[in-house]
Amino acid sequence: MDVPADERTDPTGAQPVPLTEPADGVPPVVADSSALRRAADALAGAEGPVAVDTERASGYRYSQRAYLVQLRREGAGTVLVDPIALGGRLDPLVEALEGTEWVLHAASQDLPCLAELGLTPSALFDTELAGRLAGFERVALGTLVELLLGYRLEKGHGAADWSRRPLPADWLNYAALDVELLVQLRDVLEEELRQQGKLEWALEEFDAARTAPLPKPRAEPWRRTSGIHRIRSTRQLAAVRSLWETRDALARERDLAPGRVLPDSALVDAATRNPADEAALLALPVFRGRAQRRMAGTWMGALRKAAALPRAELPETAQHHDGPPPANRWADKDPAAAARLAAARTALAEVAEANTLPVENLLLPDLVRRTCWQPPSDTSLDGVTAALREGGAREWQIGLTARALSEALAATPG
């Protein structure tokens, strides 16, 4: 019986070795143009793939910019770059990395902020995605490093405020460790994928991740306010929207995470209680603080704006979706579509299990839902193949799923 990849253990029973600091120590942070040129020259003259990571300040800052960029390449060692001190101008680094393969873990999280700095890879290896395709159920960087390389990484500062200056020494140590073993991990995962016959699949996925367009802004992002499910009337929804938009403008202006300007719970509380004036607003729990007392007029202005809206301008209770409704409503709205989806999910789960793949990596769930809600007029193998290709599926995904999906759709017409 095959042992699942994530359950493999070292037959010697050896314990992972704690890795508490980089082998070559923590380098000084590159924070001026001359140091950047020296670092870029070192990286350009080195060999092999380049390990890349970034640190952001999510939860502290409005922007998703990189506050530190970490790189490591054989022959150059580790480089820590402060893009803030450099004014976001990393041209020497852009030139040095041209034509190199980048190794990132969960690349989709880092590529947008790197692109803001003019840094885009010519080739990519994503160790998290590689781990998923290789069948590992747990694909955090520390987990894979421990399982495959035998080291336990020092962790603990990923959620820190990386906009802070100067950066503490232990934070820089943590940041350097994130790229210390990334290339070695890449090599082990590449061999694992090759042995499983999945390397070509992975290369398609890496290229798709590398060339993916930047995410589009969400329609009506205010509807993601935590606790909004407690809101029942459209007038209250308008109040949440008005408060959210006011907060968002302030957060953007101050470059603060919106929740640090005013928490979601306060938006929902104010919309639900509908205070008559500033005094009533300031009686609500979150608004009693000194910072919110200074902003009381701003928040009341947002509430009054929502209260004055004509009925025609109130938001609808439910958000319009570009696509099928939530799957849990299909049985009532379209029983035939619900049957198609159930058959498709069963068939795809079998394919995923046979190939030791997460079903969500086998085929995007949204593409499966769209195909089952409004199937192609031609549900033959050729018709489904064309529909999947038009929907953005990669060739390896089509090769594994088109026949199973075609049979599922043909067996449950509607």
From TrEMBL:
**Keyword Flavoprotein part of the UniProt annotation:** no
Pfam families linked to this entry: DNA_pol_A_exo1, DNA_pol_A_exoN, HRDC
Task: Give me any GO biological process, just one.
Answer: nucleobase-containing compound metabolic process
Q: Where is this region: Disordered?
A: 1-29
Domain HRDC intervals: 233-313
Recorded superkingdom: Bacteria
Compositionally biased intervals (Basic and acidic residues): 1-10
Task: Reply yes or no: does the keyword Hydrolase apply.
Answer: yes
Kindly give the InterPro entries that the UniProt entry links to this protein.
Answer: 3'-5'_exonuclease_dom, Exo_C, HRDC-like_sf, HRDC_dom, HRDC_dom_sf, RNase_D-like, RNaseH-like_sf, RNaseH_sf
* GO MF annotations in UniProt: 3'-5' exonuclease activity; nucleic acid binding; nucleotide binding
Keywords, ordered alphabetically: Exonuclease, Hydrolase, Nuclease
Q: What is this protein called?
A: 3'-5' exonuclease
| Source species of the chain | Actinosynnema mirum (strain ATCC 29888 / DSM 43827 / JCM 3225 / NBRC 14064 / NCIMB 13271 / NRRL B-12336 / IMRU 3971 / 101)
List the top taxonomic levels of the source.
Bacteria, Bacillati, Actinomycetota, Actinomycetes, Pseudonocardiales
